[in-house]
Specification:
- Helix content is about 25%, strand content about 45%.
- The protein is built from 1 helix and 7 strands; from the N terminus they run E-E-E-E-E-H-E-E.
- Strands 1, 2, 3, 4, 5, 6 and 7 form a 7-stranded antiparallel β-sheet that branches.
- A hairpin with a 5-residue loop joins strand 2 and strand 3.
């Protein structure tokens, strides 16, 4: 069996203080699915729980997809700071007018 991720189908949407990531995955004979996860970004980033009633294997997929966003939010600020020649750590992350906003220590 071969599974494929359709990269152009990847979406990152904001709703209030939540980011939702989803993408289409081709499971071969089992068809297409669109796993998703939401991450709350209000001061710090945390994975929102999977919807109730979701099967155990789908909860693991939900959590893995959400961890993609968490990993990006945890590592990207450090990389941006270093690329700009700064040695600052970020102290706050939030959504503002469709932007992921990071506040750095001065």
């Amino acid at each position: 069996m071969v599974s494929k991720l359709c990269l152009p189908s990847s979406e990152l949407e904001s709703d209030g203080s939540n980011l939702k990531i989803s993408m289409i995955v081709d499971l071969g004979d089992s068809g297409l699915v669109r796993p998703f996860a939401t991450v709350n970004v209000d001061g710090f980033a945390k994975l929102n729980p999977a919807p109730e009633g979701l099967g155990e294997s789908w909860v693991r997929i939900h959590d893995a997809v959400g961890n993609l966003v968490l990993n990006a939010l945890e590592t990207l600020p450090l990389q941006l700071s270093q690329a700009a020649g700064l040695n600052n750590n970020f102290k706050n992350v939030y959504l503002e007018d469709g932007w992921i906003t990071l506040e750095f220590d001065e």
